[in-house]
Amino acid sequence: MENAYRRCCGIDVHKKSLSVCIRPPIGRPEMPVREETFRTFTKDLRRLRTWLMQCHVTELAMESTGQYWRPVWNVLEGAVPRMLLLNPAHVKGLAGQKTDRKDAQWLATRLEREDLKGSFVPPQALRETRELTRLRVHWLQDLNRIKNRIGDICESGNIKISSVASDLFGST
After folding, report:
1. pLDDT at res. 1
2. Do 106 and 135 reside in the same domain of the chain?
3. Are 75 and 45 a contacting pair, CB within 8 Å?
4. Are strands 59-63 and 17-22 parallel, antiparallel or unpaired?
5. Measured in whole angstroms, how far is the alpha carbon of residue 73 from the centre of its chain?
6. Nearest to 161 by CA among 146, 143, 153
7. Are residues 15 and 74 in the same domain?
8. 151 and 91 in one domain?
9. Could you tell me whether strands 17-22 and 34-39 are parallel, antiparallel, or unpaired per DSSP bridges?
10. Quick one: which of 19, 20, 67, 75 could link to 45 by a disulfide (CB 3.0–4.6 Å)?
11. Do 84 and 62 form a contact (C-beta atoms < 8 A)?
12. Structurally, how many domains does the chain consist of?
C-alpha cells in the first residue's frame, strides 16, 4: 500500500489530558515513534501545537469525546494541514486492554494506512455563527418561560390579568 502522508499523529482526547503519538515520517523507519501526554489547559494546548509543528506533523486524527475535542481543535486548527475528527463509534475497533497510549498509537497507525473517515467540522466562521444562533434561540426560550411563569403567578394570586389583557407584556 502506498502512503501519501509525510507524518501522522493520533490524539486520544480526555477531560484532563491528551495522549499524543507521532509516527515517524514515511520512508524514515529509523526514527522513533514519539509519544507525549499533555494537559488540556490553553497553555498546554499551545505547547502541543508548537511540538506538533516542530515535528512537522502533516496529518492528525482525534476522537470526538464529548465536548473535550473542541478546545484542542480550535488551538490546532491552521497549524496542522489536515485534521480528522473521528466518531467514537467508528474508533471502537481497538480490541484488548485499552490505554490512552495504545489508543493514540492506533489512531496514528490507522491514519497512516488511510483507514479512517473523519466527520465534517465546519469552518470557524460558520461554527461561530451557529453558536450565536443557538444562543439566541435559548435566550428566547428562557424569555418565554419567564413570561409564562409571571402569568401563572398572577393567576395563582387571583389576579385575572389574562381576562383584561391578551398580552401581559405588550402595550394595551
Report:
1. 43
2. no
3. yes
4. unpaired
5. 6
6. 153
7. yes
8. no
9. antiparallel
10. 75
11. yes
12. 2
**pLDDT, position 98:** 66
- Whether 40 and 100 map to the same domain: the answer is yes
CA distance 85 to 103: 14
Q: What is the mean pLDDT of each successive set of 10 residues along the chain, which is 172 residues long?
A: 67 93 84 93 97 93 89 94 87 62 88 86 92 96 94 87 78 68
Residue whose C-alpha cell reads 491552521 in the numeric block: 78
Residue the block writes with cell 490553553: 42
Instruction: With beta carbons less than 8 A apart as the criterion, state whether 80 and 57 touch.
Output: yes
Domain residue limits at 19: 8-112
Q: Give residue 71's region: left, alpha or beta (phi > 0; psi -120 to 50).
A: alpha
Task: For the chain, give the percent of residues with pLDDT over 90.
Answer: 53
Q: Indicate if 132 and 71 belong to the same structural domain.
A: no
| Cell numbers standing for residue 98 | 485499552
* DSSP per-residue codes, 127-169: HHHHHHHHHHHHHHHHHHHHHHHHHHHHHHTT--HHHH-S-TT
Q: Which of 47, 36, 53, 55 is nearest to 104 (CA)?
A: 36
User: DSSP of 2-13, one letter per residue?
Assistant: ----S-EEEEEE
Q: Evaluate whether residue 1 is within a structural domain.
A: no
CA distance 25 to 6: 5
